[in-house]
From TrEMBL:
Residue ranges occupied by any DUF6923 domain in the UniProt entry: 65-263
Keywords: Signal
Highest taxon above the source species: Bacteria
Domain GEVED: 354-428
InterPro entries xrefs: DUF4842, DUF6923, GEVED, LruC_dom
Residues spanning the signal sequence: 1-22
Record field: transmembrane: none
Residues of the DUF4842 domain: 478-702
Family annotation (NCBIfam families): LruC_dom (TIGR04456)
Keyword Nucleotide-binding on entry: no
Name of the protein: Conserved hypothetical cytosolic protein
Organism, scientific name: Shewanella sediminis (strain HAW-EB3)
Length: 713
């Protein structure tokens, strides 16, 4: 026995010397080591991060309590971690036996108890352990005859964060950890004093809280997180400006989880892996976290499965290049028709497998969360018939579907799985039994014209904003399944800045399938959703500022309202809006729905408009067609102000004492007044039409103009 002499300020733990160490691990192995203690005895797993496939390395690590805070030591190729049985640091070689070490502890370390957070530095041969409210501690590992544990100076005051593991970055010398709970925040921890810099939320749970018991790096600065409850392995690159975690693979789950990995080892794909072959926008290549499965004997779809080094999207798929089609486990006895049921046949080899499937119904090049059509469906060996519903909000044409077979019921469309197979299939989505209702017709437009000086009338030339509109409804079984808008900016005689939108009265915004909306400006697809948030009804914003979409000829102040300022060009918007659930024709608002303009936020709209609300009006100022109710964002203080005589209780909106409104619809491509020529002077029959609430007087007023006062190209 070795005799030790300890000072009064230290505690000394002595164990037998002369230990014969197991052999070290191979130089910087690529696998991750997961240590779990499900029933007092630590068990070690080897996990291939690329697929989540794992093997049990040892069922018994020769201790009867937990082994936590483990880290892989790049300097000597051993694993070190905190041995709960001996309340000391343990060392593990390739026999996976935990050997407790003689560690001299200072007073703070002796009082800290056991540790479940720890790792080994890359740039120094030191194990670091952390405990909330106690501090950061370190044990140098260079001298096997003199292990001493001490508190990192200043770390106690900084030990306020709650984590279950951390890992050293491969190159910057800092420690990183993701916190637990409904959201996980990335912490950057300074090993010199234990202070933590919160870099923000990187992952949000859609179910139970996270507990990231095992965390480790690869050489590229990618941090891998193993969630205890379900074994899902997340990844994020901490070197990015705004890191965000996604599911990378599926590994072993446990209530007690810790991990170690050589941070300087790459994450290889593996030697026996099956990838998908859909276009890479769906997640196919390894670099895109493509769907991939470790191949095991007698557990796959159909009768064939082949090995690939990476994903190969069509036309590079190995099914095309080698003439052997292993996509033989899924077949389609029926087609995929919008709004109808479909059947797929799934042939399984092996027992205990589940089928998950995603269909790109909206053809946006990705599998969205609401496009999973088959969820954890248990398959029996042999042929299985599985039914699914094709949504009405889908889009007809060519698309893709992904089918994943695994022993795990809960997996996503991308990432690695430790068994089974992925099959990607091209599909054709059809649409039949649909009638189309055009307004005003398939070859013409209705016009909506606005006076933007509300709540004053002033020049009333009704050419401040003029749009030509065509509205289209798609109907199946007397239900509206989607609508389309086509809008052209026909004229703009406004100095003020206005936006343009369409409201669907009494159609809740939740009825709209927002992530399937498609829209364009001059045939250029637009990103982002036009569906305005914070509204009861569905409101679609075409633009916040119409001035962003016009080009004026030399010498012209406005668009198509001044003599000599004509143009054949029209900025054109197109919008396709599918509904989450169909709407009965009888419940759909009448044409032309509710097109309106509003004051561009942050811009002046005249003193009268400003005085009503005491500020620049922005979205508080809207101008709608006569007797169309405004949206939730409108300031009702405008009702009754200045020249407005709205009476919401009587269903009367946006009209003056003579019944004249600030917006009108004309059911044709209208010839509008020149700049500063009043509407009622240009069209003499309009005044009597506006005064008649029934609309029966001079209904064709717009056909009889004083031609010297209208704009002509």
């Amino acid at each position: 026995m070795k005799t030790a002499y300890c000072s009064v300020i230290t505690t000394c733990l002595l164990l037998s010397q002369g230990t014969s160490w197991a052999a070290e691990f191979s130089n910087c192995p690529t696998q991750a080591f997961i240590i779990q203690t499900p029933s007092s005895v630590p068990i070690s797993y080897g996990v291939e991060l690329a697929t989540g496939s794992y093997v049990i390395l040892s069922n018994d690590m020769n201790r009867i309590k937990a082994y936590n805070g483990v880290g892989y030591n790049y300097h000597d190729n051993y694993i070190y971690g905190w041995d709960y049985e001996g309340s000391t640091l343990g060392k593990t070689g390739d026999d996976y036996i935990i050997t407790p070490l003689n560690v001299t502890k200072d007073t703070s370390a002796a009082a800290a108890g056991n540790f479940f957070v720890g790792d080994i530095a890359i740039d120094e041969n030191v194990w670091y352990g952390y405990k909330k409210n106690k501090g950061l501690f370190k044990i140098p590992l260079d001298d096997p005859n003199n292990y001493s544990m001490s508190l990192v100076v200043g770390s106690t005051d900084n030990a306020t964060y709650k984590i279950t593991d951390f890992a050293f970055h491969p190159s910057d010398g800092q420690i990183y950890a993701v916190t637990n709970g409904a959201t996980g925040s990335l912490l950057q921890i300074d090993p010199s004093n234990g202070s933590a810099n919160n870099l923000g939320v990187v992952v949000t749970s859609s179910g139970s809280n996270f507990t990231f018991g095992a965390q480790f790096f690869d050489p590229d600065g990618t941090l891998y997180l193993s969630n205890n409850s379900d074994g899902k392995i997340y990844r994020l690159n901490v070197d990015e400006a705004n890191p965000s975690a996604d599911i990378f693979a599926y590994g072993p789950s446990s209530s007690s989880n810790d991990g170690a990995r050589c941070a300087l080892a790459e994450v290889p794909v593996g030697d026996n892996v099956d990838f998908g072959d859909a276009p890479d926008s769906y997640g196919t290549y390894m670099a895109s976290n493509g769907a991939r499965h470790s191949i095991i004997d007698d557990f796959y779809l159909g009768s064939l499965v082949d090995n690939e080094a990476n994903g190969y999207p069509l036309p590079l798929s190995d099914d095309s290049s080698d003439g052997i089609d292993d996509e033989d486990g899924i077949s389609f006895p029926t087609g995929f028709e919008l709004g109808e049921s479909a059947v797929i046949l799934a042939t399984a080899t092996g027992t205990g497998g589940y089928l998950n499937a995603w269909f790109d119904w909206n053809q946006n090049g990705s599998f969205d969360s609401d496009e999973q059509a088959i969820i954890g469906h248990a398959l029996s060996p042999g042929s299985n018939s599985v039914s699914l519903d094709v949504p009405t909000w889908g889009k007809s044409g060519q698309s893709w579907a992904r089918f994943r077979f695994s022993s795990l019921a809960d997996i996503g469309p991308t990432g690695g799985v430790g068994d089974g197979e992925v099959e990607d299939h091209q599909i054709t989505i059809t649409e039949t039994g649909v009638t189309i209702n055009y307004y005003p017709s398939s070859s013409s437009y209705t016009s909506v014209a606005y006076e933007d000086l509300y709540p004053d009338q002033e020049d009333y030339d009704m050419n401040d904003v003029i749009f030509h509109l065509r509205l289209i409804e798609y109907i199946k079984n007397n239900q509206i399944i989607r609508v389309e808008f086509e809008a052209q900016l026909a004229a703009m005689g406004a100095a003020y800045h206005n936006g343009f939108a369409i409201q669907l009265p009494d159609v809740a915004m939740g009825k709209v399938k927002e992530n399937s909306i498609e829209w364009s400006i001059d045939d250029v697809a637009q990103a982002g959703s036009p569906l305005e948030s914070g509204q009861t009804n569905a409101v679609f914003i075409f633009t916040q500022d119409l001035w962003d979409h016009i080009s004026l000829s030399t010498g012209c102040n406005y668009l198509r309202t001044e003599s000599g300022c004509g143009t054949s060009y029209r900025t054109t918007w197109k919008m396709r809006v599918p509904f989450e659930t169909t709407i009965a024709q009888s419940q759909m608002p009448d044409f032309p729905y509710d097109p309106f303009i509003f004051a561009t936020p942050g811009t002046d709209h005249g003193l009268a408009a400003k005085n009503v609300v005491g500020e620049l009006p922005g979205r508080k100022l809207e101008i709608h067609l006569k007797n169309k109710a405004p949206t939730d964002k409108f300031a009702t203080a405008y009702f009754g102000s200045r020249e407005d005589r709205s009476d919401p209780g009587a269903g009367q909106y946006f009209l003056n004492e003579n019944g004249m409104s600030w917006a009108i619809e004309i059911p044709t491509s209208w010839q509008h007044p020149l700049e500063r020529e009043r509407l009622d002077m240009t069209y003499s029959e309009f005044l009597n039409f506006a005064a008649d609430k029934t609309g029966n007087t001079n209904p064709n007023w717009y056909l009889n103009a004083n031609r010297s006062l209208i704009f002509q190209d």
